[in-house]
Structures are given as structure tokens and as C-alpha cells.
């Protein structure tokens, strides 16, 4: 499902001394089936923008179109509720949202809120828990007895259980060890491959390079650059100047280039780097 | 969450902002008693002028004070209506069955209303112009004499500043958890009472869990930095009594004197 922002502005606490403008004329298009990355610093407006994706915040001006639904500054709660089911948001540290007695009940909470019967919700919950790699013997445990990594998986299953068409991920791997991080990203890749439009908010450029097909750079509430990652990462100076950096493979290629290795364009993933080096070796 | 004005500090540099928290606290406390000295229109008039003088000097928009009134409106209306219906004496203006509205009851209701409004304005003035931590400092030093009778003043002060410090954090946590549950299709404030109470559970449990974790983290952080309260501990913020503080207390004494004199003259 596609999402598009048209001249979206957002101001926190308007008409008070605490007034602060967080988003300025945001135009953004997330194509159906795409894997879009949203990068920017803390305070760049990432989380504000993210809350517009499922209408937790309504724009102060402008419109957000999610599938068929148009979200306007004066949209009513009833009209936006279906959006919450279609766009599943995995917040940062999602394990903080767990509350129910058992893992299974917690995961079934989402679909039940959208009118799915208890039995059906639990069937979906089982399926999604298995998908994220939680084994059956943990289903009847309290979510608070699980390890941190397991809790995060359960929380993610809780979002997947709503069968969203768009999955929004806010730094989903923060605080995980390297192996758990890779497993987690592979999981999202599988989900994306099954046709779920994915939006990833991150500051890990390697993840952007490895998984995303479109990226937006956000700074001080404005979109300063957008396009394909392989094109954006060519402008190393821009990415460094905005303190975002470039993927490891690109950095490696830059070092090689400094030592005289020729690159027609910079690789952004490890496999592209390997390919370019072998090709150069074969021809050189 | 953003609409709560009680207990909110608005930064500024007015004369009221610069007053010592101890004098402001003392004045606020005294004002609650002084207000009982007023028992007619002139008395309330004097206190109203005094209150609005403070409001004016703080250079904070009146709308903030009115917003501070809003959460108390139910209580005020209840008391006012109660007074209106059950005060006896005076000329009967209006009567349905056993309920009478008399000139006395109207007057009384109005005075009660003014009493509420003035006290709320004054306390709003205190919290709007004093940073919460400074206020906690003020309370701690204000209570210092009680140390002699073994009241754990420092601990009370610490508890106070920690709770004040964590109000914004807890509010952020609440907003975050509410957003997460709303994203899972939770509706707030809809349906019947049972549904409404039920909808609190998915917020409250995660909030408790995160509060306990935070408390634990804070305790560890304090201990690892060798925290030890009470005796011999120096302070980062040092309170300074200025001439304006003496003037504030003096003005209160004058207002009290005027009210007492007026009451005796009648």
C-alpha cells in the first residue's frame, strides 16, 4: 500500500510559549511494495513524521494519504482507525508495550481491537510468533519472564498479528547484539518479500544500503535529500557533512580509491564491493 | 498530556520569577490564611487587586491562569451551588419547593467563588514562575528547623525533587506507551465504564514496569557516585534572600493590616 505526504507541516503545542515547529512542507512518497529508509539525526523530526504514518498525529496543515484514506488536520477518530490496522508501527524499544498475562494473549491484543474474534486472533498470534522465532512452549509464559531479545520479538509479533500492509520500523535493532541484529533484519527482509511495504527509520547506513530501495534524509524537519541509496551514497561529502556517514563498503572503496584503485561508482554493499574488486582484478 | 498547566513552569525574568522560592512559598501559604480575613466586597476587592498585581508583575498571559482554573472548575461549581442553595437568612429572591436562593446565599456563593479563584491564581502564579527543583529546594530549606525534632528533612526534600524531576519523564513514557497501544488499535475514552477502565490496563502495567526499572537505575547511579545525603552535603543551587523578598513579605503584612483595620472599623 502506498503512502504519500503532501506539504505536511506539524507544530507542537501551537499558540503557547512551548510552541515548536517540527515538520516543514514535507513531501514524501512511499511506493507500494517498496523498502523505504528514513534517516536523520535525533531531533530531525523522524519520530514526528513517523507518528503521521498511522495518524497518531494529524498534520497541522497539508495531507497524508494512506492507501485510500486521506488524513487531514480535522480528520475524525473513526475515520482514521482503519489506518492503524493497515499501517503497523514497531516503535523504538517495542518491548515496553507488553502488558498481558501471557505471550499469546499479548500478541492477540492487536487483532482483537480490530474486531477479530478471540479464537481467530490466537490462531494468527501463534502463526506470527512462530514467524518471529518464538517457540510454542513460551506461549503461555508471562512476557515479563522472557529475555530482552525475546520480548522484542513478541512485541513485533504483536504488530504483525494485525496483518498490516505497511510495516513501519523505528530503529528496530537498537540495543541488540550483532547476531540478533542480523537475524532481526533478515526477518524484516522476509516480511518485505511477502509483499509488505516497509519503512525503516534508522541511523545505520549499512542497513539502508543492504535493504532499502529508496531513502529520505531528514534534517531539522525538512527533507534535504531523497532517492536511491546507491545514488545518494555517491555523494560522500554530503553524507559526511550531515554526519550520517556512508556504509562500510563505501568507506572501504574510498580508501582503495585513495591508493589508486579505480571505481566507476562507489559500491554500497559488501557483495557489490567484492564484485567490483574481482572484476578489476580480472581485467587488470 | 500537553494541556496540563498546573505545576508547569514558564521561564521568564520578571520580578516574580526572580523572587526567592522561600519567600514565594511563605507568601502563598500566608495568603491562604489571609483570605479568610476578607468577609465583604471591599476585603475581596483588596485581595483581588493584590493578586492581579502579582499576575501583572509576572508578565505571564492571563489565559494561563484561566487554564489553571479549568481542572478545578467542577469542584468550584459544586461548592458554589451548595452554598447558594443551603445558606439561610436574608431576603428570599427565588424559591422552588424547599430550595431557596436568598440575597445572603448569593453573596456567600460569590465570596466562596472568589476565594477559590484567588487561591488558585496565587498557587498557579507560584508554580508558573518557579522551576520545580528550586521550589523543592525552597521547601527543604524552609523545613530545616524541623531537623531539630528529627524530621528527615533532607530525605523529604530529595523525594520531592526526584518526583518532580520524573514527572516529565513519566509523561513522556505515558505518551510513548499510549502511542504504541493506539497503534495496536486501542481506543481511549470510548465505550462504557467497564471498557474505559479496561483500557487503562495496557497503559498502567507497562508504565509500572518502566517506573520500577527507572527507580532501580537511579538508585544504582546514585550509589555508584557515592551519594550520601544530609549532613555535610554541599549545594549546587544556593538560595539568596533579596530585598524584593523582604518587600513581598512586607506587602503581605500591609495587606493583612489593612484587612484587619477594615474589619474593626465596621
TrEMBL record, chain A:
Lineage, highest ranks first: Bacteria, Bacillati, Bacillota, Bacilli, Lactobacillales
Domain of life where this protein originates: Bacteria
Name the record gives this protein: Energy-coupling factor transporter ATP-binding protein EcfA2
Alphabetical UniProt keywords: ATP-binding, Cell membrane, Membrane, Nucleotide-binding, Translocase, Transport
ABC transporter domain span: 3-245
InterPro entries assigned to the protein according to its UniProt record, in alphabetical order: AAA+_ATPase (IPR003593), ABC_transporter-like_ATP-bd (IPR003439), ABC_transporter-like_CS (IPR017871), ABC_transpr_CbiO/EcfA_su (IPR015856), ECF_ABC_transporter_ATP-bd (IPR050095), EcfA2 (IPR030946), P-loop_NTPase (IPR027417)
Main location: membrane
Pfam family, one: ABC_tran
One GO MF term attached to the UniProt entry: ATPase-coupled transmembrane transporter activity
UniProtKB/TrEMBL annotation, chain B:
Subcellular location per the Swiss-Prot or TrEMBL entry: Cell membrane
Keyword Repressor: no
Membrane topology according to the record: Multi-pass membrane protein
Major localization class: membrane
GO MF assignments: transmembrane transporter activity
Protein purpose: Transmembrane (T) component of an energy-coupling factor (ECF) ABC-transporter complex. Unlike classic ABC transporters this ECF transporter provides the energy necessary to transport a number of different substrates.
HAMAP family xrefs: EcfT
Assembly description: Forms a stable energy-coupling factor (ECF) transporter complex composed of 2 membrane-embedded substrate-binding proteins (S component), 2 ATP-binding proteins (A component) and 2 transmembrane proteins (T component).
Name of the molecule in the record: Energy-coupling factor transporter transmembrane protein EcfT
Organism per entry: Pseudolactococcus chungangensis
